[in-house]
Amino acid sequence: MTIDFPELAAIRLGFGLSPIMAPPPDVDALLAGLARSAPGPGAVTTAKAQELQNELMALRAVRRQDERSEKEFKAFNQRMGRTIAFDLRLRMARAVDDPTGFGERLVQFWADHFTIRPMGVGRNPLAMAFVDEAIRPHIAGRFEDMFFAADTHPMMLVYLDQNTSRGPNSMAARNRKDKKLGLNENLAREAMELHSLGAGAPYTQDDVRELAELLTGLTYDSKKGFAYRPQIAEPGAEQVLGVNYGGEKRASLDDIRAAFRDIARRPETAQYLSRKLAVHFVSDDPSPELVEAMASVWRETGGDLPQVYRVLATHPDLAANLRAKVRQPFDLVVAGFRALGITGKDVRDLEFKKFRAFAFDPMARMGQRWMNQNGPDGWPEDPQAWIAPQLLAARITWATQMPQRMLKKLPDPREMLVTTLGSTRSDGLAWAVPKAESQAEGVALILASNDFNRR
Amino acid sequence: MIELNRRLFLKSAALIGCSAAAHPLMTSMTFASVPSDNRLVVIILRGAMDGLDAIQPYGDPMLAKLRQNISVGPDRGALDLDGFYALHPSLAPLLPLWQKGELAFAHAVSTPYRDKRSHFDGQDLLEAGTGHDLPVNWQVGGWLNRLLQAMPGSKAETAYAVGLEQMKILSGEAAHLGWAPQSSLNFSAQAQLLLEHIYHDDPLFRDTARDAFRISSETERTDVGKGADAEAVALGRFAADRLNAEARIAAFSITGWDSHANQGAVIGRALERLSGAILALREGLGENWGRTTVLAMTEFGRTVRENGSSGTDHGTGGALIMSGGAIRGGRAYGDWPGLGEGQLYADRDLMPTRDIRAYAGWAMRGLFGTELAAIEQSVFPGLDLGGDPKILA
Q1: What sections of the protein cross the membrane (chain B) (predicted)?
Q2: Sorting pLDDT into bands at 50, 70 and 90, what band is A286?
């Protein structure tokens, strides 16, 4: 089967075909579409997140004074808890409306690459600010800028314990010998192993420790906000991968930026991230040719992401591995909305309860509880991780129930087969769908099919 | 002090927990039966249960001094067990089990997790079943999964992760199944046939759907009713149903133990859920209850002193609650460290006197005949099991 570029791009790089909008005609249109994924007008900032967290803390402090303060706290606490679902609703609405979809897929990819978890309702808005401040501005830029923005973002500092890390010889540690103040290597290790060079790259425990010392000084707390505090930074130069950062002069944020830039430009980073992109978009076991083609452009351009994406989008492996990947629950739900002609506005207008019933809760049953990844390595990639009895049952149940509850009038399954899968629909599905006993079952069969659940 | 390192858990995290473990594409190839008729149920109590309130050591005179509003012993409604410990009133439905020797507990237990007191990391360590001091490549998945790997003849049907919560304790290389009581597959017969046709050439979807339709047809969908303990009861019922069939291991979790304020109300509801789940297991298992051990474990205990809002904060030593017909119950296990000055951990928490994994290790030794070396080297790598507490009848 030969698949033309627009169908291929929509299914493999976006959120599937739609009956109401055209897929990107060529690779230039695909890449031009990335601009749509810049931070939107409602973007959350760290300052806003701080304000909300402080308001919650203030209400918590006075709760139980009287009935009114208790009620006020509970209402606000619930609102903060729900921001996770509101965030998902917005993310989905943007993805549904994006004609090319690649930009929002990349937001998913990079936000997952730099996994964070809010760990407590008070920090939910900060987790949203992370995506708006560290990920969206950089998906069509240079990797080194995203790397620095993500690993120095307040949400990451909190998630990977950087906030509690102190230089063992810093002024703060020397003056407060009674308090337990010490180095924490968590962020430094993830920065190298998960975020850039990859496990197995030639760096040592000494490099991790030196980078951890270099990172001391980065702090965030909701009262004072983000700050670089030289008094808690480890004095002296740190040698990371053979390069000295800082030194005689006062340590500064610029030294950290320089280290991130150098690590981002290492060939191991080019290799590791090219492969990770290929695994996510093409196949769990991508060909060495594809990975090398991407990595060499990465090296030549210093990690200019759109040029790397171009290699991915135009490589023959993209078509050759059609259906090798299973859509993650987020992708499936968005693709389902698109296939049914539901618009971003429809999604945004869903009241909270309905959104939970149609998207948030089903995603959790499919194994993807929003903002609740298992660990800093994010969501799994292999199809077996997503297709197990209970998880597949959740997909089939959603395919059965969601369309009837969302739509007044269901599409004709025979037409839907063409508008959602185009020339890629398999013979088995084309044979089965017209034999369904009802329109609803026909639609359910399409959304539950392996054709639709794979990409 | 020892620090928990998330690095240790990456390997297990990569193999997503819950029902999403490696799919048994070849289940029909395994004909050997599991070499035991015994059953093990692990209930993870998420949010750090206050063991001092669940099982109140009122015989320690310090308890009443440190806690004015909670954990107050038989004078204020708790149920005396042995003159030293008393059962929280919300556990009253379990008192007959204590009297029959089907309920026991061990106080002052913990995992090796210390000082950070984060629920997330504490639960990760509890489910991984590892210490902090091990090489990275030892940290693979959860300890129930590694138990399966040490059980000859185990197959996917042998172990169930029950409920919607991810159960990292079962994640790993050994095949197992997962299902939530409220899951169902209400497809018409015709639609199911058509779906089987559609999946026919895709082994992953075909075989997984076959399991899903089978489990769905073999088990009744439980509409989770109203009431504080409805969901927990449904979890217990479903687990019992599977354990009456081929399953020998089941795990699920009960949430809602984080009682920073107004502890009386918070822990009361949570204990009702726990006793609802245990009674549902007992009722559902029928005769098989006699061959069953239930271990209810929590990530850490809570502060010994009551805080300013009639609650408690994150602590260290906690309590393990054991139940089942296979248990030598009606008694307290473990050494009581005391609540007096100098007896607390970091001057705030119950001092752990035994690793909670030792009880689980001896339970699996007794239930499944698992080799001690396998328990100490692979299920709980690096653990010294110590003496047998003889918790099984």
Answers
A1: none
A2: very high
* pLDDT for position A2: 81
Asked if A117 has any chain B CB less than 8 Å from its own CB, the reply is yes
Whether the CB-CB separation of A209 and A185 falls below 8 Å is answered with yes
Beta carbons within 8 Å of B29's beta carbon, 6+ residues apart:
none
Chain A with chain B: Cβ pairs closer than 8 A: 151
Positions in chain B whose pLDDT score sits under 50: 1-32, 135-137
A388-439: per-residue pLDDT in tens?
999 999 999 999 999 999 999 999 999 999 999 999 999 999 999 999 999 9
Instruction: Report the run of H or E that residue B319 belongs to, with start and end.
Output: strand B318-323
To which residue do tokens 């492996």 refer? A317
Residue among A132, A146, A123 nearest A43 (CA)? A132
CA atoms within 13 A on the CB side of A338: 30
What number is the average pLDDT over the span A32-52?
95
- What is the CB neighbour count within 10 angstroms for residue A428? 18
pLDDT value for B131: 81
Read off the tokens for B45. Answer: 């109590």
**3-state secondary structure (DSSP) of residue B215:** helix
Q: Determine which of A303-317, A372-386, B148-162 has the lowest per-residue pLDDT on average.
A: A372-386
Find, among A212, A186, A373, the residue nearest to B7 by Cα: A186
Q: Which of B115, B206, B208 to mutate to test the interface with A (most CBs of A within 10 A)?
A: B208
Q: What are phi and psi of B249, to 5 degrees?
A: -130, 135
A228-232, A343-347, B34-38, B305-309: which has the minimum mean pLDDT? B34-38
How far is B75 from B92, CA to CA, in rounded Å? 15
Which of A89-93, A102-106, A127-131, B110-114 has the least mean pLDDT? B110-114
| pLDDT at residue A374, as a whole number | 76
Give the separation between CA A365 and CA A394, rounded to whole angstroms.
6
* DSSP tag of B292: E
Cβ-Cβ contacts under 8 Å, A189 against chain B: 7
Cβ proximity of B172 and B197 under 8 Å: no
**CB B19 to CB A390 under 8 A?**
yes
pTM of the model: 0.85
pLDDT (mean) for A358-367: 95
End-to-end, the C-alpha distance of chain A in Å comes to 15
Q: What ipTM goes with this model?
A: 0.95
What gap in Å lies between CA A223 and CA A49, rounded to an integer?
11
For chain B, the C-alpha Rg in angstroms (whole number) is 21
Q: How far is CA A184 from CA A21, A152, A170, B11, in A?
A: 49, 15, 14, 21
Measured between alpha carbons, how far is B176 from B34 in angstroms, rounded to an integer?
A: 13
Q: Which residue of A has its CA nearest to B202?
A: A450
What does A298-342 look like in DSSP terms, one character per residue? HHHHTSBHHHHHHHHHHSHHHHHTTT-SBPPHHHHHHHHHHHTT-
- Other beta carbons within 10 angstroms of residue A127's beta carbon come to 22
Reported residue count of chain A is 455
| Helix (H) / strand (E) containing A447 | helix A439-448
Chain A residue with minimum CA distance to B186: A397
For A16-30, write each residue's pLDDT tens digit.
999 999 999 999 999
3-state SS, residue B83: coil
- Structure tokens given for B389: 């507490």
